TrEMBL record:
ATP binds at residues 100, 140, 145-151, 175-178, 183, 206, 259-260. Keywords: ATP-binding, Ligase, Nucleotide-binding, Purine biosynthesis. This is N5-carboxyaminoimidazole ribonucleotide synthase. Its EC number is 6.3.4.18. InterPro entries: ATP-grasp (IPR011761), ATP-grasp_carboxylate-amine (IPR003135), ATP_grasp_subdomain_1 (IPR013815), PreATP-grasp_dom_sf (IPR016185), PurK (IPR005875), PurK_C (IPR040686), PurT/PurK_preATP-grasp (IPR054350), Rudment_hybrid_motif (IPR011054). It holds the Pfam family RS_preATP-grasp-like. The gene is purK.
Amino acid sequence: GSVIGILGGGQLGRMLSVAASRLGYRCHIYDPSPEPPAGQVAEHVTTAPWDDAEALAQFAARVDVITFEFENIPTATLDLLEPLRPIRPGRRALSVSQDRLTEKEFLRGLGLQTAPFAAVNSADELALAVADLGTPAILKTRRMGYDGKGQARIDSAADIQPAWDAMQGAPAILEGFVTFSQEISVIAARGLTGEVAAFDPGENVHEAGILRETRVPARLSGGQRSDAVLLAANILNALDYVGVLGVELFVTKDGLIVNEIAPRVHNSGHWTQNGCSTDQFEQHIRAVAGLPLGDGGRHADVVMENLIGDDLNRVPELLREKDVAVHLYGKPEARAGRKMGHVNRIIRSER
Ligand code: ATP
Ligand code: MG
Ligand code: MG
């Protein structure tokens, strides 16, 4: 049997390992942190820094293919690994999605719509960009942001200096505020031989910048649904992508606007674990291992709810509920804002 190497050992790496194991593969996790959640289920774990050339070479020697569960893998790490084993998805997907500016330019280049944006490297440039794009607007660090961290909203001139200060000197991007009716995401996959399969778009609800809930089906017209899926396929093909990709979209009266892409399995795709015969984790493993993709068809309506921080206290009660699948990540402490697990509630239609 082959061994799949996974960079990053969080909950996504853990669920990828479970899916890989179901298909008869073994997993080897590489993560700098001492007790990563994925380490509890994978066969091997390497705990070493991202720039440890020797540890990376040993890791590569023990695996057949390398994938990752988060997009911020340092370039130096990729430089060391790339000559040794195939990395799927590849460099291009990572470099495009690691920087919000590069990402938006790439998406525009494909003819897709994004929020209006401007690169910002100083308080003066921010003032000019705000004058240009208007308010409200959102200032974001170009790199490393997640769960709404590294963002500041600007409603008036008085917010400009504090917003710039919040970036702590990091290169930033100003985005015009998009008025949307809903947020949706498409989770789609492309196989080694170029075939594409997409899951039904989900409708996402965020709270304080963190994903709270994903519902399928999303409230969309047939046209909007096919636009969303075609747009995701367009991105996958342009990147010569292998694996699962998440595309976050705003639904507006002027069509779909791409918020961001994630070159990996995605929180808003967790519903597939209980709504599809092939879930996003298995689909990703199939793609990177060079197997045929599974059918992305959906057999149930599902509401996925994240269990964040103290929500963990609700688990005993959730375990008693009918049609609720509980998924826990085995993280040691339930810090505020930390994703501890999720539940998939299967909605049965009344007959
Ligand atoms: P993630 O955890 O999904 O990676 P993130 O930190 O990269 O999040 P974004 O997805 O950029 O952050 O923004 C978080 C949320 O803030 C979005 O889902 C959306 O609700 C809101 N938001 C972000 N940018 C805009 C915008 N330009 N206009 C309107 N709302 C926005
Ligand atoms: Mg993001
Ligand atoms: Mg996002």
